[in-house]
Amino acid sequence: MPDKTYQPSPLAPIKRVQTEGGWALVFTRDLRHPVAKVWAALTERGQLREWAPYTPDRDLTSEGAATLGMLDAEGAERPMPGTVLRVDPPRLLEHAFGEDVLRWELQPTAQGTRLVLRHSFTDGGWASALAAGWHICLDVADALLAGAPFGPVVGTKAREYGWDELNEQYAKVLGVPPAKPW
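Given the sequence above, the corresponding structure tokens read:
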């Protein structure tokens, strides 16, 4: 059952760029929380389990192997091997899961933190789906940071939180057909 107070935030600045190995989605989000608080939400296992589409087997505060439990709509975890590639607290976290790489960059702003997520992936057809998914995840993270957590929104459950509309809107912004994962 969706949180009745949730409405997706406005679309975030986003772009899709071709890379040597496929594609990268660059997603920028301004958060009204200090960098240290956002860093903790990105790296601490207990906080990640409240908003991210995965739960790591450890805090993501040091380089090395990590298993990420990818969550489905029912909350079941599917283990996926990962690696923390770079950690430069509190400004840069880069980690891989499967073939994808997530690079999180944090910059202080007058109002809080500018978060830039660079998600590298191989199949360019997934760009709008990834954008819609990260949009909702970061809305959930923002609620957690504001002290009003409502738990992760993943898999088909995201459709109850506006995923379909976000997928269509981001497809238009990116100039691609909407992804059809279901």
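The chain has a mean pLDDT of 93. Try to locate this feature in the token string yourself.
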